[in-house]
Fold each of these.
Amino acid sequence: MKNRFVVTITDVNGSKQYNIHQYMKQIMLYIILLVVVIFFFSFISIRLLLKEVEQIEIKRDLMQQEYLKINEKNEQLRALVDEKTEELVKVSDRIEDLEGIVGLSDQIIEAPQDLSLIERVDLARITGAQKAFVMQLIPNGVPLRGSYRITSEWGARVNPVLQRTQPHNGIDFGIPVGTPIYAPADGVADFTNNGYNGGYGIMVKLEHSFGFKTFYAHLSKIVVNKGDFVQRGQLIAYSGNSGRSTGPHLHYEIRYLSRDLNPRPFIEWTMRDYTQIFEKEKNIKWQSLLTMINKLVEIQATPALSHKEQK
C-alpha cells in the first residue's frame, strides 16, 4: 500500500474509497506546480509588459513634447527667415540719394530756421493745378474703395510668432478676399510676384516719382505686369490672404528713398487738407521737393513747350 494513495469520499449514501497510484500523485503535483509556475511567470511577464508599455507611453509623450518644441522652434526660425528676407527686400530697394541726383541738397535751398515748414513752402503761390499735379505723382488717399477697418497700424508691435516687439512697416486694412486695389498715384509696376516673398505672399510694388514706392502684400491676384505704367486710380490687384497672414487683409507700405514712412498721413492727405502732410511727415524735405515739382509744372505750362507739343 505504500505505493498507493487512497482517497475516501463520504456522502449521505456512504463512503467510497479510491486508490491512486503514487506516481499519479506525483504527476498531479507536477501539473499543479506547472500551472502555478506558468501563472506566476505569466503574472510577472504581464507586469513587465505593462511597465514597458508605460515606459513607451512616457517616451511617446516626451517625443511629442520634443516634437512640439521643435515645431515651435521651426516656426520661429521660419519667421526669422521671413524677417531677414523682408530686410533683403528692403536692401534691394536701396537707391542713390535722389536729392543729390537732381540737385535738391540742403545747399541749394536754405531756409531760415525760425520759419515754419508751411511758410518755407510758400503755399500761397501754389495753384490748384500745381496741387493736383503733386497729388497725381505722390501717393495719397486709401488704395481701395468702400468700407474698411485698419487692423494694424504702422510702428512697433509684438510679432505674433516670435513674441517680441518688432517694427511693422505698413498699415493693414481688414478687407474681404477679392477687394479691388487701386494705385494711389501715377507710377510703374516695379515688382509683381505670385510667390511667398518672405511672408509678404503675392505682392506688387509700384515705383512713383521722386523716390516714392508703395507695396501691396498678401494679395490674391495681380492684374498688372512688371514694367506697366499705371495711373492714379487704376486697378492693380485684388486683396487676399497669401503669405504669412493671420486673416484676409491688405498690407500697405510707403517708402521714400528706401525709408519706411507711416502711411497714415498719406491716406488722410486730400486737396482740402493739403498742408497737413507737410507738418505730419518730417522725413521728407518738402520745400525742395515741391520747388522741383512746381518748376516742372511751370516748364510744362510754357507756351513754347505747349506749341511744340501741339505740332
Amino acid sequence: MQRAQLMAYIAEQYGAAPDYPWQKHPDYAVFRHPNRKWFCVLLRVPGSKLGLVDGANVDIINLKAPPELIGALRSMPGIFPGWHMNKEHWISVLLDGGQNDATIFSLLADSYDLSR
C-alpha cells in the first residue's frame, strides 16, 4: 500500500483529513476523530528504528489495537511495537511490509473504533 492510497481511503471511509502538527517532520500526518483524538498516524522513519537491517526510510502507520491482541499482531510480518507510542495499546504497521490492504484496512477500522 502506498501513502496516497491510504490517505484517500481514510478521507473516503472516515472523512478525516491529515493534520501535520510537527514542523520538524512535515510528512508526519495525524488523522483524528472530530473530538481530536488520534486514530492513525502516518510516518516515514528509518527502518533501523523498527529493528530492520535496512536503514532506508519506510512508511508506517501507528494504530491503536486491543491490548490482548498486541502480542499476536506483533508476531505477524510487518507489524511492530508502536513506534514512539504506548506499546501496550499501539502497533506500527509497515505499509509495504507483508500485510495486504484488507488487513491494514481492518486494523485501521479497529483503531478508529478503539480510539473514540
Amino acid sequence: MQSLAWLTVFPELQALDESAKKLLVQYARIVEAPIGTIGYREGDHCGAYVLRLKGRSRVYKMSSGGREIVLYRVGAGETCVITTTCLLGNSQYPASTIVEEPIQDVLIPEPIFNRLMIDSIVFRQYVMQNYGALISDLIVLLDEVAFQTLDARLAKWLLDMGNNTIQRTHQQIADELGTAREVVSRQLKRLEQKGWLTMGRGVIEIQQRSALLKLANSG
C-alpha cells in the first residue's frame, strides 16, 4: 500500500478525513521526470491534478510566430493553476510546460479529483485557496505585460534574479519577458552604456542596483 508521507509537503491536506486518504492511497501515484520533459502541450487533455513534491517546471505560452512568454513556474509544495482550470472547466490545456529541474509529482486522476472536490471539504478548500492565489499571480503578470514599459520589466526581472551575476542568454531573457531577442539586446546595451550593468558571453553583471530599482518602479 502506498504511503502518504508526501502529505508533509502539503500540511493543509493532512487534515483530510480517512475516506479521502484511502482514495489517495488507492489512486494517487508518484511520478518523476528529468530536465527537458514536456509535461503537457497546448491542446492536450488534462487527466490529473498535480501536486509538486520536488523540482521545478516552466509554464509558457507560444505565439503563432514562435515567440514564447513565461506565464509562471511550479515548484515544490505548489500546484499548477492551468491544470486546476482545465479540471474545473473540463477544458484542454491553453499553454505548455517543460521541466527545468528534475521533478517529482503526485498525480490525482481526474475522476478522483472530481470525487474529492464533492466529498471532501478540506480538499476542496485547499484546491480553491491555491487556485485563487495563483490567479492573482497571473493578474500581476498581465498587469506587467499590459501596462509596464519593457525597460521597467527588464529592470525588475534582473533585480528579481536575486544576485548581481546573472547567467542567462538574451534569448532566454526574451522568452521570460515575452519579447524578441533583438529588443532585449538593445535594452541591455542601453543599460550597459549607462554603466548600470556589464555584459559578457551569457553573463550579466549588475553594477548599480539602485538605478535599476528606480527604473523598475518607474514603469
Amino acid sequence: MNDPAAEEPTEAAAPVCPRHPDRVSYVRCQRCGRPTCPECQRPAAVGIQCVDCVRESKRAAPRIRTVFGGTATTTTANGRPVVTLTIIGICVVSWLLQLVTGGAWTHALWFWPWGGAVEPWRFLTASFLHSTSPLHILFNMYALWITGQFLEPLLGRARFTVLCLLSAVGGSVGVLLLAGDPFTSDAWVTPVVGASGMVFGLFGAMLPVMRRLGRSMGQVLVLLALNGAIGFFVPNISWQAHLGGLVTGALVATAYAYAPKERRALVAWAVPVVGVAVLVGLAVFRYASVGVL
C-alpha cells in the first residue's frame, strides 16, 4: 500500500548565504552563483558579486607600479597616505604627552650629541618631539603633509617609510657631525627636538623625484632656499639637522628614483640596510674621533 505522504512533493529548501547560514537570500552572486545576503553583496558592473569573489578578483588583478616601483592606487581608501598620517598622529600624541608630563616625556626622548652616545635611540625619537609652541609642530606637520601626500603614492608606503626614518636619523647625525669641538662647543649638550630633519629629508627627496619625472624643480628649490635660510637667521633652529636630513633624503630618493626596473626590489631592500650602516658608521666614527668610543 502506497504512503500518501510520500507521494507529496517536498518543498525545496530556501537558499541561504554561505557566510551567514541563518539568513535566507534569493539574490545570487553573478560570478559564482551562490546566494548572497545584503551584508555580503558588493555592486559589480552587472548585478552584484559576493565579498569572496571581489576579494579573489582583487588578488588576481595585476598590480600597476609607478615609475619608482610603488603600487599605483586608484581608490580613495588604498590611495590615502597612511604612513604620512601615521607619523603626523604619532607626533601629535607625543606633543600632547610632552605637555601633560611636564617635560618628562621630552627629556626621555630628545637628542643631544653626548646623550646619543649612550642612548642611541634618541637619534630617531627626537624627530617625534617638538617645542611647546604650537607653531613648531604646526609648521612641521603641514610641511610633512604637503610633501608626504605627493611622495608616498609615488614611492610606495614601504619606501616612503624608509625615507622618513632614515631622514630623521640623518638629521640627528648631522647635528653630531657638525657639533664642533666637544670640549668647547655648547652644541654637544644642547637638546634638539623636532621633525625638521625628516621634513628636510622629504624636501631633498623632491629633487631627484621631480627630475626623474621631468618636472620643473624651480618651486622646490625656492622652498628649500627659504626654509634653509630660516635656520641661519632665526635662533633656536638646528640648521645642522636640516642639512643632515636634506642630504640623507636626497640620497635615498636618488637610489629609489634611478634604480633599474629589474633591480627595484633589490634596491628597496638594500637602501635601508646600507643607509643604516652608513649613518651608524658616521656616528661611531665621530664618537671615536673625540674619544667617546
